[in-house]
Amino acid sequence: MNKEIPTYNFIQTTGKDYLAKLFSWGDVKQHYNFHEPHSHTFHEILIFEKGGGEHLMGMTAFPVKDYSFHILPGSYVHQLKRKPL
After folding, report:
1. What is the C-alpha end-to-end distance of the chain, expressed in Å?
2. C-alpha angle 56/69/41, rounded to 5°?
3. Cα 20 from Cα 45, distance rounded (Å)
4. Can you tell me the distance from the alpha carbon of 4 to that of 27, in angstroms, rounded to the nearest whole number?
5. Residues 6+ apart with CB under 8 A from 70
6. pTM, rounded to two decimals
7. Cβ atoms of 54 and 78 closer than 8 Å
8. Fewer beta carbons below 10 Å: N end or C end of the chain?
C-alpha cells in the first residue's frame, strides 16, 4: 500500500504571527498528527525539556533526551514517538 506522507506549511501549523510555539506535552493542540510520519515546508527546531521516547528523522531513530534539541530541514520526513509522561 502506497500511503502519501502529509506535508504542512507554516500558516497551517502555527499561523503567520508566530515564529515559535511553546507547548507542554500533556497539552498538545496541533493541527496535524505528529505521531504519524509527516514533513513541513519550513525548517523546524524541536526543544525537549523532558526526555522519553524517540524521534524518527528520515530512516534514523534518535532518543528524546532531557534538555535536548533536534533540528530538521524543510521537507524532511519525521515522526515523534513519545512515551507518556
Report:
1. 33
2. 60
3. 9
4. 28
5. 45, 46, 48, 55, 57, 62
6. 0.70
7. no
8. N
